[in-house]
């Protein structure tokens, strides 16, 4: 059964798509949280139809927690962008106060993780990578894990001091820091998946990352409040607002979101089954 809220999601997407051209206010200014809410509702209903189990229908409290963590994660990236300045926002004049801008940003940031993990669940639901495994089992020493954490710390610091050259490390640093910590504390991690030879979740994350990247950039391109990029050295040949090489960043970004989500969640819930 396709859940009723899935039809509401489809309707929201269609209305926003039409309004990209009509520019009817105030809806045109609030496109981002509206269209991504529509996407989340639609994909969740589709996952439920396939699996009879979904985030909204069966794990709603987890879904709400994910939205809160999503806001926190993206505000962290906004802080990092202050010295890096890889993206800027325009078209915010329609919000008459700082409070409205803050509300728009918070609601928009809250959709990132839910939309991403809904996409992962859809990929898992169609069993795209269920039979894909590594031939060799990998073991990781504590020394190696500590070295990866140190690399992550250096990757976090470098863009703050050398933003023009080290900016790509923003999309690797938290993964390097947090994924080994998650592994050492028995939380879901890419390292654990590799150790177990199972690639279904890592590959699902990568595919979801590039799907989300395309949709983020596609819907951003037509919007009034939007972001644009200023990326040193690779700012050529744009697809929508994103330079083509920038799309490669969505692959490590998917791992980073996974690591950040499970780390923050583990601060409140010590052990939990895999999300997907």
What does this protein structure show overall?
It is a single chain. With 276 residues, the protein is mainly alpha-helical. The protein is 65% helix and 4% strand. The chain has 12 helices and 4 strands, in the order ααααβαααααααβββα. The protein has helices spanning 4-22, 31-51, 55-58, 60-84, 98-110, 112-125, 142-161, 163-166, 170-184, 190-195, 200-221, 250-266, and strands spanning 87-90, 226-229, 238-239, 242-243. The chain has a two-stranded antiparallel sheet with strand order 1-2. A two-stranded antiparallel ribbon has the order 3-4. Strand 3 and strand 4 (242-243) form a beta hairpin.
Task: List strands and helices in order, with pairings.
Layout: H1 4-22, H2 31-51, H3 55-58, H4 60-84, E1 87-90, H5 98-110, H6 112-125, H7 142-161, H8 163-166, H9 170-184, H10 190-195, H11 200-221, E2 226-229, E3 238-239, E4 242-243, H12 250-266
Antiparallel strand pairs: 1-2, 3-4
Globular, elongated, flat, extended or rod-shaped: what is the shape?
Answer: globular
Kindly state the mean pLDDT as a whole number? 93
Computed over alpha carbons, the radius of gyration is 19 Å
What topology, given as strand order, has the largest sheet?
1-2
> Could you spell the SSE succession in H and E letters?
HHHHEHHHHHHHEEEH
Number of distinct beta strands: 4
Low-confidence stretches: none
Structural class per helix/strand content? mainly alpha
Can you summarize the main beta sheet?
2 strands, antiparallel
Alpha-carbon distance between the two ends: 20 Å
> What percentage of amino acids are in beta strands?
under 5%
> What is the helix fraction of residues, given as a range?
55-70%
């Amino acid at each position: 059964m396709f859940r009723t809220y899935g039809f509401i999601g489809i309707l929201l997407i269609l209305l926003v798509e039409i309004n990209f051209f009509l520019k009817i206010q105030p809806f045109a200014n609030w496109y981002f949280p509206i269209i991504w809410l529509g996407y989340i509702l639609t994909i969740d209903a589709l996952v439920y139809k396939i699996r009879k189990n979904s985030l909204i229908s069966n794990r709603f409290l987890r879904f709400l927690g994910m939205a809160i963590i999503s806001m926190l994660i993206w505000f962290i990236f906004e802080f990092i962008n202050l010295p890096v300045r890889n993206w800027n926002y325009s078209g915010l004049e329609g919000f008459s106060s700082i409070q409205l801008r803050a509300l728009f940003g918070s609601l928009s940031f809250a959709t990132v993780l839910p939309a991403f993990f809904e996409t992962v669940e859809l990929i898992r639901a169609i069993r795209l990578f269920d039979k894909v495994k590594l031939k060799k089992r990998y073991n990781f020493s504590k020394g190696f894990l500590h070295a990866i954490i140190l690399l992550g710390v250096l990757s976090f610091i470098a863009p703050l001091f050398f933003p023009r050259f080290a900016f790509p490390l923003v999309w690797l640093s938290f993964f390097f820091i947090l994924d080994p910590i998650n592994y050492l504390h028995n939380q879901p991690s890419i390292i654990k998946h590799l150790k177990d030879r199972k690639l279904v979740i890592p590959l699902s994350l990568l595919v979801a990352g590039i799907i989300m990247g395309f949709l983020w950039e596609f819907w951003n391109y037509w919007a009034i409040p939007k972001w644009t990029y200023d990326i040193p050295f690779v700012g050529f040949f744009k697809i929508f607002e994103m330079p083509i090489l920038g799309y490669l960043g969505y692959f490590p970004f998917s791992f980073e979101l996974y690591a950040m989500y499970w780390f923050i969640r583990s601060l409140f819930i010590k052990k939990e089954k895999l999300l997907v």
